[in-house]
Design a protein that fits this description.
Elements: H1 2-22, E1 31-36, E2 41-42, E3 45-48, E4 53-58, E5 64-67, E6 73-76, E7 81-85, E8 92-95, E9 103-108
Parallel strand pairs: 1-4, 3-9
Antiparallel strand pairs: 1-2, 4-7, 5-6, 8-9
The structure holds copper (II) ion.
């Protein structure tokens, strides 16, 4: 009888742990991917959380950058990727240094 009670308790605890993993609170940072193709950032706007990795995948045969005026810059070589870990202050617009018409926006959600 005592053993049965213990088993039930363990089941409940196990269920709570599963809920914690699948629940709305995200335990791990994720990677948000932007395709850079035909002189455009796709999608143009992304939403991330601080700590997420932003990854630009360059499918063009020439170099691009993700550049913030007066701020940071990520090089995105042809056929390669550039990454940045999103910071709380990254709620911002960026452009490409070589093709200033290329624009993107990062929204940082709480
Ligand atoms: Cu460019």
């Amino acid at each position: 009888m005592t053993a049965l009670l213990l088993d039930r308790r363990q089941l409940l605890l196990g269920g709570a742990a599963l809920l914690a993993i699948g629940g709305p609170a995200r335990a791990e940072a994720s990677t948000v991917r932007i395709t850079v193709e035909k002189l455009a950032f796709v999608p143009e706007e992304i939403t991330v959380r601080a700590g997420d990795t932003i990854e630009w995948v360059n499918k063009d045969p020439f170099a691009h950058t993700a550049t913030v005026k007066g701020g940071w810059e990520v090089a995105i070589p042809p056929g390669k990727t550039g990454t940045r870990v999103a910071a709380a202050g990254d709620d911002i617009e960026y452009y490409c240094r070589f093709h200033p018409n290329m624009k993107g926006r990062i929204v940082v959600s709480a």
